[in-house]
Design a protein that fits this description.
Rhopdopsin 7-helix transmembrane proteins, globular, mainly alpha, single chain, 3-stranded mixed β-sheet, 3 strands, 319 residues
Amino acid sequence: MAGSSNWTQVTEFVLLGFSGITHGQTYLFLVFLVIYLVTLLGNLTIVGLILLDPCLHSPMYFFLSHLSCMDVCYSSVTIPKILTSFLHKRHTISYNQCMAQMFFLMTFAGSESALLAVMAYDRYAAICQPLHYSSLMSSQVRIPLAIASWIWGFLNSSIHTTLATHLSFCGANQIDHIFCDVPPLLKIACSDTYVNEITIHLASIFMGLSPFFLILLSYIYILSAILQIRSNTGRRKAFSTCAAHMIVVTVYYGMANVNYNRPSAGYSLEVDTLVSTLYCIITPMLNPLIYSLRNKEVKEALRKVLGGQKKDYASTQEK
């Protein structure tokens, strides 16, 4: 960190999101622990089912397994640090930990945004180009698309984190947030943040909105194709194949919009804490629940796994 001789070098930050809560931190610890365990259990169960059940070895579930991995990583960037803070009743984070948390948080958030666009294209290919689906979503296509989604988030976070490491923090080290993110860091920086702010706006347009517009375009074609299906049964079956993805996209982008595009007027740390919690902590927990509740194949795979375990247990008891 560059700085003048009159500046105090900041080595740690204070996260104010939960620091004002003096009573009930034990209960909050238990709540976040349950959320984290449910997130891990739900997403890892999805990954396990996709690996074990041959019926789920299709492009759609291949991408879903990557989404679950991203959600596990996404929640693991923030929740363990929050749990540690509740245990020690000390809501601080070192400078290096802050930069690392910001880097990985933006990586997984950007990767998930790109992957949701890839999954929308997969649904477009399945519904609008069913005869060419196997070639459009062959392993030679879907594997590079999944890798590109991870790289998309990595490049986005690398740019922002590199610029953030060149900021100077002269004494002010209190961040109005529950984790390290670029906008709250810019508020307390004492060096010029013009380049950082321009980069944020450009990245939000290119890295954030372009996947959203691809999703929107895919669903325009999908809905048009569904409406051309004559039978009600056919329309319902086609719509059901993309219903879970539509819900996940709505929740993800809805929470992202509320989190990053709220008006500064009437800002409240309590509201910011709530919205950030919903966006970064609750959303990864909801995704596997949405896919398991809305998807017959996932529920059937889960029944087969649980049924197999019961049979194994019964046979062991008989012996």
